[in-house]
Design goal:
This protein is of the alpha/beta class. It contains 10 helices and 16 strands. Strands 3, 5, 6, 7, 8, 15 and 16 form a 7-stranded mixed beta sheet that branches. Strands 11-10-9-12-13-14 form a 6-stranded parallel beta sheet, with helices on both faces. It is globular. The structure holds NADP nicotinamide-adenine-dinucleotide phosphate. The site of NADP nicotinamide-adenine-dinucleotide phosphate has 30 residues, from helix 1, helix 2, helix 3 and helix 10. NADP nicotinamide-adenine-dinucleotide phosphate binds next to helix 1, helix 2, helix 3 and helix 10. It catalyses: 2 a quinone + NADPH + H(+) = 2 a 1,4-benzosemiquinone + NADP(+).
Amino acid sequence: MSKRIQFSHTGGPEVLEFVDAPPVAPGPGEARVKNAAIGLNFIDIYVRTGLYPTPSLPSGLGSEGAGVVDAVGAGVTHLREGDRVAYAQGPLGAYAQYHTLPADKLVSLPDAVSFETAAACMLKGLTTQYLLRQTYPLKGGETILWHAAAGGVGSIACQWARALGVRLIGTTSSPEKAALARRNGAWEVIDYSRENVVERVRELTDGAMCDVVYDSVGKDTWETSLDCLKPRSLMVSFGNASGAVDGVNLGILNRKGSQFVTRPSLNGYADTRERLEGMASELFAMLESGQVKVDIAQRYPLAEAGEAQHALAERRTTGSTILLP
Ligand SMILES: NC(=O)c1ccc[n+]([C@@H]2O[C@H](COP(=O)([O-])OP(=O)(O)OC[C@H]3O[C@@H](n4cnc5c(N)ncnc54)[C@H](OP(=O)(O)O)[C@@H]3O)[C@@H](O)[C@H]2O)c1
């Protein structure tokens, strides 16, 4: 019998159950993937805890994975059984041995990209693509601040920013994580658990401050992030690792220097097949050229997804984490 992770009520990692789940036959426009590797993301924790509500319960979990197409539904023309594919969108349920989803969410995997690498970077790498190349189209020469620079998205962003000729100032919470971010191409790193981030950014930039701040930490860093911007610059708030930013009085953007703020998501950027394919081909080109290398620092059996999420929430992980079905 095949297995999946599901949860019947929201809560801590203990709500995750490893249960029997027969593979679901694909309906029209759908395909079924036999997962070879599954990506772990902080977003999965928001879903498990209820910060991001699910359509119904019990629910599957996870939205990133890679494997082989093992069945296709009526009307699917761009995929066949046996194709190597990866995905980062679609219905929850990637934490499973088999996942059935709309075929237009699947992209073909180049031979040079392994299943494990794809599972470790589809969601995180496509996110980095839109943040660095679309939300603010960096040209090279800019200075940016990137929080949690040794994490899954952060590790890819450090390398991609270096390739673009952008000076990325990373923040991390330990010397080991700082060293990792530097190895990945961060120009400078600030330990935000000990140092005054605004003062350090001022020193590092000779008072000029940053063109863009990328903030996925949320509640704890929101105001600091605004203080690290040049006037009339862009604050990209794209996550809530420390809690959601809420109750914002827009007047703060005036006081902090006529700033711009955006709260983007991958689904808002990869919202058509054409856009998804364009973003994925750019990510795969970065992987194939060696400019971005995906660091799979943790591997867990699928059955231990709760333990893996616990480690991620407790800041014990670096780079990417994958689950093996
Ligand atoms: N909007 C989108 O499209 C999108 C897509 C993908 C991911 N994201 C966001 O990007 C962020 C990174 O995702 P990821 O999966 O790659 O995770 P990750 O960066 O590997 O892990 C989160 C990191 O956040 C830092 N952090 C700061 N305060 C924290 C706290 N109170 N609790 C836990 N961690 C804290 C930790 O690094 P330090 O120990 O160095 O502080 C931790 O390692 C998440 O916020 C996620 O929601 C957004």
